[in-house]
Amino acid sequence: MRFKDRSDAGQKLAGVLAPYRSADVRVLGLTRGGPSVALEVARALEAPLDLWVARKVRVPGRNTHKLTLGAVTEGGGVFLDAQAAPQSPLSGAPLQDFLRGELEDVEKQARQLRGGPTPDVRGRVVLLVDDGMVTGATMAAALLALQQRGARQRIVAVGVATPVALELIRGRADAVHALMLKVGLREVAEVYDSFPSLSGDELRRWLTRARDSSPARASGVAPDVGGGWWF
């Protein structure tokens, strides 16, 4: 399986996620690649749509800058890779200070992109959508943040995932939907024909368009989660 682009992946995910059509559902696109996928899901489910800002954290230092230490997200989500952390030149209080600075940067970016308050997820079923997961680090951090914000259920939906990412995430989410499981995937772009990067300005324009065309909130009973492809 391949996807034409992120919208194609979103349309395919929307069919799988149809059982979640409910007034309690909120769709969040994980930045940067998730919003375009999430837009198609929100349209199909007639659900409120927003983004959730996330960032990979690189190990500080001249010789280790390409090593991913983990990820942070708005809402205070932090995930540290247990294998990468010992390779960081920082530990203890200096590491906590470094992560605090990363979190502050993410919160600032979220305010700039959204131009409004963080979406209220307390008591809601949140569909956290992304184009794919290679390590699962950003998704793990986002799930923690949403748990801290009081989300009732946290459902992960992605176009593609590696077995490693799936193993990490399925113990942290209430359920995980992945259209494709791919061993040896190094970049999410490998399964997309078109995979443009999105700048901050493009994300702001995307969010404005998404809000302008936001469908009416769906009504109904709590979703039947018996269908779909579950891990």
UniProtKB/TrEMBL annotation:
Cross-referenced CDD domains: PRTases_typeI
InterPro entries recorded: PRTase-like (IPR029057), PRTase_dom (IPR000836)
Keyword set includes Transferase: yes
The Phosphoribosyltransferase domain, residue ranges: 23-165
Protein name: Phosphoribosyl transferase
Signal sequence extent: none
Source domain of life: Bacteria
GO molecular function, one term: transferase activity
SUPFAM superfamilies reported in the protein's UniProt record: PRTase-like (SSF53271)
Alphabetic keyword roster: Transferase
Record flagged with keyword Transferase: yes
